[in-house]
Design brief:
Blueprint lengths: L7 H20 L65 H13 L9 H9 L4 H15 L4 H29 L4 H4 L32 H17 L6 E5 L4 E5 L2 H14 L5 H21 L6
Antiparallel strand pairs: 1-2
Helix pairs in contact: 3-8, 4-5, 5-7, 5-9, 7-8, 7-9, 8-9
């Protein structure tokens, strides 16, 4: 601000900014973002096969996302508007296939995971909100977007991504599905003869401390990617994302390629079953489609 000359244009800009900020704060007053619920406030089901329990850790990490199900969405009619159908039944063949995939590829000492897959898994253990935001800012510069175009692009992506987080965590705390770090050691309780327990199994990295289904990285990344596709009018836009975890940058030729990467990465890290990533991606796409179709349209 100090570098901008002190003239009427600057004064008018500050005034408009303050008015918009005040209007947004008034609009979102009492939207639930200031709530601080505990785990018990969300009425967890009794412990048992298929039911997520917090990662015990040493010390125990905080449980994440507890307030999100109670936040009023920015664009959706309700947090449960696009709630997915739920995880695969524990006794199903689909569950067994996903179980055995993550058991093999997502283990800390996996011999099935390739070095390239290890890098892919670690790349996406960075904070994906930061990864996407930094990537979008870089994309705006590379595409020569002006200030208004950049603001519109970021607004579309963050409204879609924000509502996907609300919708996704509403589903997480509706289904309370267990993570692989529980499911694999306790496989002898799931009633599925095609799954075998391993009491020593651990994921590649410590698992985020919230229920498994649907996958958060998948629904957030899908929502953002689909909003970007709507903004540019095509999925085929070259862009890049980086990771502070691996210190590397990944170049993509289209937005959906990043979504496919993150879906696989969360299984390679031992965090998610494949179905959760697929359902998460579907949820993000539905949220983004609704946001784009009902908002950010040209005015008559």
């Amino acid at each position: 601000m100090a570098a901008i000359p002190n003239d009427s244009a600057k004064g008018n800009g500050i005034m408009i900014g303050e008015q918009v900020a005040a209007a947004v704060l008034a609009l979102r007053a009492g939207d639930g973002r200031d709530s601080n619920p505990t785990l018990s406030d969300l009425n967890p089901p009794p412990a048992g096969p298929g039911i997520w329990e917090p990662n015990p850790g040493n010390p125990s990490p905080p449980v994440l996302g507890l307030r999100l199900p109670g936040i009023t969405p920015l664009a959706l009619k309700s947090a449960s508007q696009f709630r997915p159908d739920g995880p695969n039944p524990l006794t199903s063949q689909d569950y067994a296939e996903d179980f055995n995939q993550v058991k093999s590829l997502g283990s800390i000492n996996s011999t099935a995971r390739t070095p390239a897959q290890m890098t892919e898994a670690l790349f996406w253990t960075d904070h994906d909100l930061r990864q996407w935001n930094d990537g979008m800012l870089r994309l705006a510069g590379n595409r020569g977007l002006d200030l208004v175009q950049t603001a519109r692009m970021l607004a579309m992506a963050h409204v879609a991504g924000g509502d996907a987080m609300i919708a996704g965590f509403e589903a997480k705390y509706h289904y309370w599905f267990w993570r692989p770090y529980q499911a694999i050691p306790l496989a002898d309780t799931d009633g599925n003869p095609a799954t075998q327990s391993d009491s020593n199994w651990q994921p590649l990295r410590p698992t985020p401390n919230h229920p498994e289904y649907p996958a958060a990285h998948a629904f957030h990344s899908s929502a953002v990617a689909n909003a970007l596709r709507a903004f540019f009018g095509t999925d085929k836009v070259a862009f890049s994302l980086d990771s502070r975890v691996t210190g590397t940058t990944r170049d993509y030729k289209q937005f959906h390629d990043a979504v496919k990467d993150v879906m696989l990465a969360r299984t390679l890290a031992g965090f998610h079953f494949r179905n959760s990533c697929e359902e998460g991606s579907n949820l993000g796409r539905e949220v983004s489609r609704y946001v784009v179709e009902h908002y950010f349209q040209p005015l008559d």
